[in-house]
Amino acid sequence: MNSSIRWRIVTLQVVMILVLGFCAGFLFYQGNFVTTTVHDELVAQKISFPAASQVKLGGALDPTVYPTELTSLAGQPVDNGDKARIYANDFIGHHLEGVASGLTYSQVSSLANAHPTNATLQAQVATLFKGEMLRASLLNSYGWWTTGVYATYAGIGLLIAALGVLGALIYELLVAGRKPQVIKVAQKLAA
Question: pLDDT by residue (tens digit) across 150-169?
Fold first, then answer.
């Protein structure tokens, strides 16, 4: 291999290390920013799972009604995306199913518009709207949390790739660049 091709390879490796390193750093920063922001916003809302004392038959967290994933978080604050998803789907979602026999806000709202004097329907519309908005906000937090976590994982992958290219560059500079005569002389001296 002539020296001009070798230096092109070395230059390409240096550029790849810089690009991969920059992208990895950017993804680490963004992943941390997103997960920290979601955490801080959830903590500010002061949402908590019902107390551990409520995990009993007939309690707020009846183990025969709620999944173990939810009951195991009893008494804990909702402070990350995974907890937000569990609270939204397993706790709020379960309660919303009981408001109007499983009907959604849009279905009950249509019925309430058709019967504007029905106080029960109007109350169900208000409850379902508030519950579904809170559930949607928590699921949005979960989505962004997941995006932040995956950005961090992608940053780790790019960092590993950058280290691989760095290893190839070090090999190119220290080993592959030696002239064959130097290696043969070193082998003769070692023998």
Answer: 999 999 999 999 999 999 99
Which of helix, strand or coil describes residue 5?
A: helix
Amino acid (one-letter) located at 58: G
How many whole angstroms separate alpha carbon 97 and alpha carbon 27? 39
The length of the chain in residues reads 191
Contact 154, 161 (CB under 8 A): no
pLDDT value at residue 74: 87
Assign 66 a pLDDT band (cuts: 50, 70, 90). confident
Q: Which of 99, 96, 125, 97 is nearest to 110 (CA)?
A: 125
Pick the closest to residue 130 from 89, 80, 96, 107 (CA basis).
Answer: 96
Q: Where are the domains of the chain?
A: 3-190
